[in-house]
Amino acid sequence: MIYLVYRMKLSERSRRNQKEFWAWLEDRERWFYRDLPMVKEVRWYYSVIGDVYTIESWAAFEDEAGWGAYRAALSGLKSDAAWEGERVTQDDWWEFLNTRIVTDPPVSIGLRRD
User: Fold this and answer.
1) Which residues pair with 46 in a beta bridge?
2) Does residue 82 carry a pLDDT above 90?
3) Beta bridge partners of 60
4) Domain count of the fold of the chain
5) pLDDT tens digit string along 6-60?
6) Which stretches does DSSP call E strand in the chain?
7) What is the largest CA-CA distance in the chain?
8) What was the pLDDT predicted at 31?
9) What sign does the CA torsion over 56, 62, 68, 74 have?
10) Looking at the domain assignment, is residue 35 inside a domain?
11) pTM above 0.85, yes or no
12) Enclosing domain of residue 30
């Protein structure tokens, strides 16, 4: 698996209106990934110590081809004025800090317990 990781700082509006922000994010996630089936999983992490009011989104793809298909699909979606108009509302809620791509290590390591 490879992961596209976005790191964002919550805006002042988000910090003042936490309930509204989290409701917006739930709706946005459903809307944004609806037409992007190559995204296999999305995980969110919220920083509570250190860089407070910072969230990370980890979108999982099976391989580089899946990530490439995502980029191509996103380019097509951005050409739709209504879709793009909805997408850019994210600027009211957060500021992008950085983006990176990470991958699973080539060996079976890690621990997960239920």
Assistant:
1) 55
2) yes
3) 3, 41
4) 1
5) 999 999 999 999 999 999 999 999 999 999 999 999 999 999 999 999 999 999 9
6) 2-10, 41-47, 54-61, 94-103
7) 45
8) 96
9) negative
10) yes
11) yes
12) 2-103
> Quick one: 61 exposed, middle or buried, by C-beta within 10 A (0-12, 13-18, 19+)?
buried
CA atoms of 87 and 98, how far apart (whole Å): 18
The Cα–Cα gap between 93 and 42 comes to 19
CB-CB contact of 57 with 44 (8 Å): yes
Q: Is residue 59 part of a domain?
A: yes
The pair of structure tokens assigned to 11 is 């805006």
HSE-CB at 51 with a 13 A cutoff on CA atoms is: 10
pLDDT(112) > 90: no
Report if residue 39 sits inside a domain: yes
CATH number at residue 74: 3.30.70.100
> DSSP labels for 4-32?
EEEEEEEPHHHHH-HHHHHHHHHHHHHHH
**Looking at the domain assignment, is residue 92 inside a domain?**
yes
Q: Which two tokens stand for residue 88?
A: 């850019």
Residues 6+ apart with CB under 8 A from 97: 7, 8, 9, 54
